[in-house]
Design brief:
By secondary structure, this protein is of the alpha+beta class. It folds into three domains: 3-167, Threonyl-tRNA Synthetase, Chain A, domain 2; 184-405, Bira Bifunctional Protein, Domain 2 (BirA Bifunctional Protein, domain 2, 2-Layer Sandwich); 411-518, Anticodon-binding domain (Rossmann fold, 3-Layer(aba) Sandwich), CATH 3.40.50.800. It is built from 16 helices and 23 strands. The chain has helices at 3-24, 54-67, 79-88, 92-100, 164-167, 170-176, 193-211, 231-243, 289-300, 302-306, 323-339, 394-405, 428-440, 455-464, 475-480, 498-509; strands at residues 29-35, 40-45, 72-77, 106-111, 114-117, 132-139, 147-154, 180-182, 189-191, 216-217, 225-226, 250-258, 274-284, 311-317, 345-347, 354-363, 369-378, 384-389, 418-422, 445-448, 469-473, 483-487, 493-496. The strands form five sheets. Strands 10, 11, 12, 13, 14, 15, 16, 17 and 18 form a nine-stranded mixed β-sheet that branches. Strand 17 and strand 18 (384-389) form a beta hairpin. The chain is globular and about 75 Å long. The model has no long low-confidence stretch (mean pLDDT 87).
Length: 519
């Protein structure tokens, strides 16, 4: 089955899931759902504590609805009319989302008398057999009380292990790992100390790679830009380029972006109300535009590659009033992509500030695609201006990274590779010697001396924090000059020597403990 057919089948299954839930539990409130190439899901607020045994009941109702051969169709309408329809069905949360959507038209999926918002819904030309299998349900860490995510697959086409999506849900992981905390009223996320450490690594990497291209860093007066426009930052950079005594044609800074499209904290870091973004403006002669595009494409691909993201490249082309210039710039972008032998697809969309834009889209654990790093050609009557971003949305990059790794972050990207749990004070000197040797090897080890806390609780906290390696050191280990090791993802402990631990880590990381070694 093709990728598009998988998506279509799962979109229909998500519609069946929503219809079945509303018929069985009329007071349930739909929040949002989608079908992807990997699965289908729906986020739902139940008026009771949802239990997993209800999945079978819901699946049976989905099968019954499908068997009844109810009329299935998709409808396009304005968001305001769609919101009124949802309010009539007492689906107030979806109605609220529809009122906020900036789209001129939305797609509604209808099956029998039931209807809901299904973005990008495409239907089969002929009826297909029922293939849905509900796999998981879990509470979503959200400001919405009682929010539950139900996930299913089509015909066992997706071979994920049990509880895969629950264990890779970044909303739960960032709480367990103490990375972020949501602000009240859904106004963004606080970077907690552990996340700050990761952010520092990423920003330093961005600066180091930028320095190689002689980019200079500035700070403009604080004025948050909007997601659809970098005008404030761009204008400041233009002024510096045009008026500074020293010729500065490559300018970069970090800026806060206001996301007017944010429509709910259940999307977490993927669609926050505001986020950090790096923006670099390159001012160049028009004859050098192709060269700069090639260099910048290589630049924005660095993070998706070193983090091992599954990504695709999108070339967006907006409808410019000056057709000749638009076609010329589109041609330059295409030549740059061809020169680097990069596969891409074109989308005839965009907003007025960008003429041509290459976006890197990254997949989350549900196989939804989110925009990330980008390169744009800005409108300019004089010199050519490129705007590029290595991260696009730094909060979103963090969420995608956490989902992809299941919380087990790359070795080089964390400030704690190993946690040494010291069982008693008599073992402290030996534990400190082990910790010192690990740090000398470039392996970041921290020690847990909390003797007043039970060993089981300390061990649980380390597992919950997704520490790659947990080492227990007590009397037995001190006397035998060994360690007791628990490796993340393995439900077993084993005695091991320090040299054997060094060897294991070298094999697991390929001897690469820093970002420079991972390129």
């Amino acid at each position: 089955m093709s990728k598009n057919n998988d998506i279509t089948e799962n979109q229909i299954n998500s519609l069946l899931l929503a219809a079945a839930v509303v018929e069985l539990f009329p007071k349930a409130l739909l929040v949002e759902g989608q079908g992807t190439e990997a699965c289908f899901f729906y986020d739902i607020v139940f008026p009771f504590d949802f239990e997993s045994h209800l999945l079978g009941v819901i699946e049976d109702r989905m099968r019954m609805i499908h068997k009844e051969d109810r009329v299935l169709r998709s409808l396009e309408m304005t968001p305001s009319n769609a919101a009124l329809w949802m309010e009539h069905q007492k689906q107030y949360l979806i109605a609220k989302k529809l009122k906020k959507t900036p789209c001129s038209l939305v797609t509604m999926g209808q099956i029998g008398e039931f209807a809901t918002w299904v973005p990008h819904l495409h239907l089969h030309t002929s009826k297909v057999s029922f293939t849905a299998k509900l796999k998981e349900s879990f509470a979503v860490c959200s400001s919405i009380p009682g929010l539950v995510r139900i996930i299913g697959i089509a015909n066992n086409s997706c071979k994920q292990k049990r509880l895969f999506w629950q264990e890779h849900n970044h909303l739960q992981l960032i709480c367990d790992m103490q990375l972020f905390m949501p602000l009240e009223n859904q106004k963004g996320w606080v970077w907690l100390p552990k996340a700050e450490d990761v952010k520092e690594f990423l920003i330093n990497y961005w600066k180091k790679e930028s320095f190689k291209e002689n980019v200079e860093f500035i700070t403009s007066p604080y004025l948050p830009a909007t997601i659809n426009s970098f005008n404030s930052v761009s204008e400041y950079h233009k002024q510096v380029f045009q008026n500074s005594q020293k010729k500065m044609n490559k300018l970069a800074e970090l800026a806060w972006i206001i996301n007017s499209d944010s429509n709910g904290i259940q999307q977490g870091l993927f669609q926050p109300f505001c986020y950090l973004s790096d923006s670099t403006h390159l001012f160049c002669l028009k004859e050098n535009l192709l060269k700069e595009c090639i260099s910048s494409l290589q630049f924005i691909l660095k993070i998706p590659k070193i983090l091992g993201f599954e990504f695709e490249i999108i070339l967006r082309s907006s409808h410019s009033k000056i057709r000749k210039k638009s076609e010329m710039r589109l041609s330059i972008m295409q030549m740059a992509l061809k020169e680097l032998q990069l596969d891409y697809r074109i989308e005839k969309k965009g907003h007025s500030d960008f003429i041509e834009c290459v976006e890197i889209h990254v997949a989350d654990s549900l196989k939804r695609w989110w925009s990330g790093p980008f390169l744009s050609i800005l409108k300019s009557d004089q010199e050519a201006i490129l705007l590029r971003s290595m991260f696009g949305n730094l909060e979103r990059m963090m969420g995608l990274l956490v989902e992809q790794t299941g919380g087990k972050l790359p070795f080089w990207l964390t400030n704690e590779n190993i946690r040494i749990i010291v069982v008693n004070s008599q073992s402290r000197v030996y534990a400190e010697a082990v910790c010192s040797q690990l740090n000398q090897k470039g392996i970041k080890a921290l020690m847990d001396y909390q003797y007043s806390v039970s060993l089981a609780q300390r061990f649980y906290e380390a597992i919950k924090a997704r520490i790659s390696y947990i080492v227990l050191i007590g009397e037995k280990e001190r006397l035998t000059n060994t360690l007791t090791l628990h490796e993340s993802g393995l439900n077993q402990e084993q005695g091991i020597t320090l040299d054997a631990l060094f060897t294991r880590i070298q094999m697991a990381t390929g001897g690469k403990n820093s970002e420079s070694e991972n390129q």
